[in-house]
Design brief:
- This protein has 342 residues and is α/β, with parallel strands linked by helices.
- The chain contains eleven helices and seven strands.
Length: 342
């Protein structure tokens, strides 16, 4: 299950998609009436035409890159597992219900479905909303099969190995710095997701101080992914940094990617590699925001070379990792996959 995409680059389709996405109470978490006024009255009318133009710069002959890449991942995984693999999206098509129906049609006696949210890190506006939406559609139809879900895998050794392997060839290039650009979220989401209610952004060095809150803390989890990958690749601490992209307002996690890109050349960083590990599949936020606009910002500020490292997409080690997790669960391991309690 991935994020989703508009059906086309037409403004009407982008408007429909943005309405569904931004009206999600886990994305913009304000009361419904205020959210509707903000989204339908202000954000979407102004943003839809601009987003449509942005999508046009990355659209492929087969459609949205995110949809195409997710289907390619499905096909690659299907070659390695005997269980049927279906695709669902949080927004747009195909929905979880369409995926459930497809699987039931293939296997009327289906016993269990494993939901695989393609989000390494836990956040209200990504992993949580995907899981809750899939559960809602599951409950509405009262399907006969059990539903299980893959946990956030931000620190899983096989995932870290796959991510490191996808980065390693790029390190042969001459570079000054690697920027890990993660999707931004409001700081209030970090606090809302804090299961203890008193740790995240309230304790000094909260992300480095052990706490049960880390199980649902996006900030801690992206820091952990970065640390594990850079340790595996022996990248010294002065050669990488973390930033957050795609902000929609004030009070979001900092530093901001766009500002960081503008400042780096002034600090002597002229040759830059950028990777976006919050995304498993390349999409608008990586291909247009980072690979195109990010490069323009960096080079205009005095940069000399700029390369965006692709997402995992269908990297062989990533496909093998998913296959390994499915096989392990089939053999009785529940370390990464858990039954959903309904």
């Amino acid at each position: 299950m991935n994020l989703g995409s508009p059906d086309s680059t037409a403004v009407r389709d982008v408007r429909k998609y943005l309405n569904e996405f931004l009206m999600d109470g886990r994305v913009i978490d304000i009361p419904f009436i205020a959210r509707a006024l903000l989204v339908r009255g202000i954000i979407v009318p102004f943003r839809a035409p601009k987003s449509a133009e942005a999508y046009k710069t990355i659209w492929t002959k087969d459609g949205s890159p995110l949809i195409v890449l997710t289907r390619q991942l499905q096909q690659s995984l299907q070659q390695q597992v005997k269980e049927p693999v279906a695709v669902a999206m949080r927004y747009g098509s195909p929905s979880p219900q369409e995926a459930y129906e497809q699987l039931l049609q293939q296997y009327p006696g289906l016993d269990e479905v494993i939901l695989v949210p393609l989000y390494p890190h836990y956040a209200m506006s990504s992993y949580e909303t995907a899981v809750e939406y899939a559960k809602e559609q599951y409950e509405q139809k009262k399907y006969p099969f059990k539903l299980s879900v893959l946990k956030p895998f931000y620190n899983e050794p096989d995932y870290i190995q796959a991510l490191a392997a996808s980065i390693e060839p790029w390190l042969a290039k001459e570079y000054d710095h690697i920027l890990f650009s993660y999707h931004g979220i409001p700081e209030r989401h970090i606090r809302k997701s804090d299961t203890t209610g008193c740790h995240c952004l309230q304790v000094n060095n909260c992300c480095e101080t052990a706490s049960p809150a880390h199980a649902t803390c996006y900030r801690h989890q992206v820091f952990t992914t970065t640390r594990l990958v850079t340790e595996k690749l022996n990248i010294p601490s002065n050669k990488f940094s973390i930033s957050f992209q795609s902000r929609l307002g004030k009070g979001w996690l900092q530093p901001f990617t766009d500002i960081h890109l503008e400042e780096m050349p002034k600090e002597g960083i002229k040759k830059l590699l950028v990777i976006c590990p919050a995304f498993v599949s390349d999409c608008l936020e990586t291909l247009e925001e980072i690979a195109e606009r990010g490069k323009e910002t960096f080079m205009h500020a005095g940069g000399e070379s700029y390369h965006m490292i692709p997402c995992l997409n269908t990297h062989p080690l990533w496909v093998a990792t998913l296959s390994k997790w499915v096989e392990a669960y089939g053999n009785g391991s529940d370390e990464l996959i858990k039954k959903i309690e309904l």
